[in-house]
Amino acid sequence: MHIFQTKPGQCKVKFKPNTKFDFIDRAAVGDIEAAAFLAEGYLTGKYECEVNHEKARKWATYASNHGSELAAKVLEELNK
After folding, report:
1. Could you report the per-residue pLDDT of 12-40, keeping only the tens digit for each?
2. Average pLDDT over residues 37-50
3. Which of the listed residues 18, 40, 50, 62 has the most CB atoms within 10 Å of its CB?
């Protein structure tokens, strides 16, 4: 029996919308907006995220490299 039989984004667990785990699930399949919201969440503590600047930078860099203005603003804030 395989424990992990689903691909990212096909998880059978439904997370509360617009929260950390919802955004992680969406970002895992390339949702740039979700990655930007994760970056913002890890920067500020929004969306049930803990403040973690390392994770904020990771997600902001990814989303910014794909054109997210929100992520670029998060990176600016982190670089202050």
Report:
1. 667 889 999 999 999 999 999 999 999 99
2. 97
3. 40
Q: Between vectors from CA 44 to CA 42 and to CA 50, what angle results, nearest 5°?
A: 45
Tokens of 25: 């699930």
Instruction: List the one residue out of 61, 59, 55, 53 whose CA is nearest residue 78.
Output: 53
How many of the other CB atoms lie within 10 Å of CB of 73?
16
Q: Cα 22 to chain center, whole Å?
A: 9
Q: Is 80 exposed, middle or buried (0-12, 13-18, 19+ CB in 10 A)?
A: exposed
What pLDDT, on the 0 to 100 scale, is given for residue 2?
44
